[in-house]
Design brief:
Number of strands: 15
CATH superfamily of the largest domain: Ribonuclease Z/Hydroxyacylglutathione hydrolase-like
CATH architecture of the largest domain: 4-Layer Sandwich
Strand order of the largest sheet: 1-2-3-4-5-6-7
Distance between the termini: 49 Å
CATH class of the largest domain: Alpha Beta
Shape: elongated
Order of helices and strands: EEEEHEHEEEEEEHEHEHHEE
Radius of gyration: 19 Å
Length: 279
């Protein structure tokens, strides 16, 4: 797949019984827009209907060309789940996922008819999905493994084109890396992300993300050693000196996630809003 395939509003067949429609919500955090996937041919399951944009919801119904019976959500951030309830109302579809946790940037309107858990199996007469709980980017994040073609629908756990922000307290760097390592033990042939094109070199993609996060963690440790008793706002300048300063407020969230992971491991400590390595 290449960037030319990423056309908002165009239904693209990616594999037998797997189609993609991109929502019109392009931006810094969403890339070309949120990927909505339509699975099946006679009866349709929709993965991540996206934001509550009326034209996108109607287009999902129009391009489905068959009854939409199920709506599966990877997580409840506002670019992935808010259209679920409106689409369910319009189609009568069953909604599946995990309710939104407390906190900012969560879709409190999401109310699943069926709550999913790790290793649950969702089956139709056309395909089967295995549920994979992947906390990290969000505590209620789920991926869905198509057991026939071995494609993993990754939501925001893995996206194409950039790394994702890990935003505490709901986001957890420790959980995120463990979830990535969990995927390395699975037989996956392609990654169908929530943003960007399909990733076919699965092992390379997983290894790069894990290495990138651990390299950033090592830099956090290095800069904490050089600048002990440092505030988050001061530390981000040193740890993310390769990132434009205009993005440092956003980078602070992932930096905090790294620091909390180090604290959990007994390697860092916070005192009066400053951080230092634990002796």
């Amino acid at each position: 797949m290449n960037k030319d395939d990423l056309v908002v509003g165009k239904i693209v067949t990616l594999a037998k019984g797997v189609r993609r429609l991109i929502a019109p919500n392009a931006g810094m955090m969403t890339g070309p827009g949120t990927n909505t996937y339509l699975l099946g041919e006679r009866h349709i399951a929709v993965i991540d209907p996206g934001p509550a944009i009326d034209t996108h919801i109607q287009q999902i119904i129009d391009v489905a060309a068959a009854p939409v019976l199920w709506i599966l959500v990877t997580h409840t951030h506002p670019d992935h789940s808010p259209a679920a309830m409106a689409l369910a109302t319009a189609t009568g579809a069953e909604v599946l996922g995990i309710p939104a946790p407390q906190g900012r940037h969560q879709d409190s309107t999401f109310s699943p008819d069926r709550i999913l858990a790790d290793r649950d199996v969702f089956s139709t007469d056309e395909f089967e999905l295995e549920v994979v709980h992947t906390p990290g980017h969000a505590s209620n994040h789920l991926c869905y493994l198509h057991t026939d073609c071995r494609w993993l629908f990754t939501g925001d756990h893995i996206i194409n084109g950039s790394t994702v922000v890990i935003d505490p307290p709901d986001g957890s760097m420790s959980d995120y890396i463990q979830s990535l390592q969990k995927l390395r033990s699975m037989a996956i042939d392609a990654l169908a992300p929530g943003h960007g094109a399909v990733l076919e070199n699965v092992e390379e993609a997983l290894n790069w993300i894990i290495s990138h996060r651990l390299e950033r963690e090592a830099k956090v440790v290095e800069k904490l050693a050089a600048h002990p008793a440092t505030s988050l706002a001061e530390l981000v300048v040193h740890v993310y000196d390769d990132v434009n300063a205009s993005l440092h407020s956003l980078a602070e969230r992932s930096l905090l996630a790294h620091l909390l992971k180090l604290e959990l491991e007994g390697r860092a400590i916070q005192h009066e809003n400053c951080w230092c390595l634990k002796e």
